[in-house]
Amino acid sequence: MSSLDMPIPSPLPVWIDETLKNPECVSWPGVHTKSGYARFGKYRVTRLIMRAKPGQVVMHTCDNPGCINPLHLRLGTQAENVKDRDTKGRGVVLRGTEQGGSKLTNADVLQIRATYKGRGKGPSQAKLAKQFNVSERLIWSVITNRNWRHV
Ligand SMILES: [Zn+2]
């Protein structure tokens, strides 16, 4: 069943009427997804309210993912949504190899961590730096988990 065929769950229509009189954000009293979006069963509440078709995304003009005020919602495409997010500077945070100037791949990081056994045992940080053609400081930060925590 697509969200189009799904009747809006019963308390919602009344609620939406109330909401429409309200210019403020209205947060969904029910369950939210991990990223903070209002959820009803396996459906996104905002998709039900906006009758979003497959391929359409519901965008929040208020930037509040838990808000279900139809006045703060508009239908758009995925491309628009991405553009909107970039404009607002909420794009994905770059990490590790995605960062400009980074010269280590995730595989390198794993190899460095596996190879380095500690001071005086096995290859030194200086040697690893030479081997991977990066600074000793970078090797140190990999070993001490200051960077690439996600690897
Ligand atoms: Zn809102």
Strands across the major sheet, in which order? 1-2
The DSSP helix count reads: 6
Task: Indicate the CATH class of the largest domain.
Answer: Alpha Beta
Integer-rounded radius of gyration: 24 Å
SSE arrangement, N to C = HEEHEEHHHH
Number of strands: 4
Look at the structure and give the mean pLDDT.
77
Question: Explain this structure to me?
Answer:
The chain is of the alpha+beta class and 151 residues long. It has 2 domains: 11-87, Homing Intron 3 (I-Ppo) Encoded Endonuclease, Chain A (Alpha-Beta Complex); 96-143, no CATH class. The protein has 6 helices and 4 strands, in the order αββαββαααα. The strands form 2 sheets. A two-stranded antiparallel ribbon has the order 1-2. Helix 5 (125-132) crosses helix 6 (136-143). The chain is elongated and about 70 Å long. Mean pLDDT is 77; it is low at 91-100. The structure holds zinc ion. Zinc ion (ZN) binds next to loops. The site of zinc ion (ZN) has 6 residues, from loops.
Short note summarizing the structure:
This protein has helices at residues 11-20, 45-50, 78-87, 106-115, 125-132, 136-143; strands spanning 39-40, 43-44, 56-60, 73-77.
